[in-house]
Amino acid sequence: MYPVELRYTQEHEWVLVEGDIATIGITAHANEELGEIVFVELPDTGYTFEQMEEFGSVESVKTVSSLYLPVSGEVVEVNNELVDNPGQINESPYNNGWIIKVKMVDQKEVDDLLTSEEYQQYLDNL
User: Fold this and answer.
1) Which helix (H) or strand (E) holds 33?
2) pLDDT tens for residues 34-52?
């Protein structure tokens, strides 16, 4: 089961909401599909993105995969440790492997995202 305190997208991003700040990463399922992550393209702080707009990418030994922002907002922090150690995403996708933090512009967008149970059901139907 996936962490119940998070929300998920069908593109396999997760979101942790704390006040108006959303921390975003990719799920363990995405990690399994991608394999060893060797490079992460991160946006600069201050950039704003709309919900489900591409904000970066991860490159693994198998493929390059786009990252989509689950909620609209302004990037307020990026996990710069991933530049030197992108494998943190594989090792700890829900903790040290977080990718960016954004200041949300519309918290109601979180309601559009999948719960842990809904995400598991989505995966079961793939």
Assistant:
1) helix 28-34
2) 999 999 999 999 999 999 9
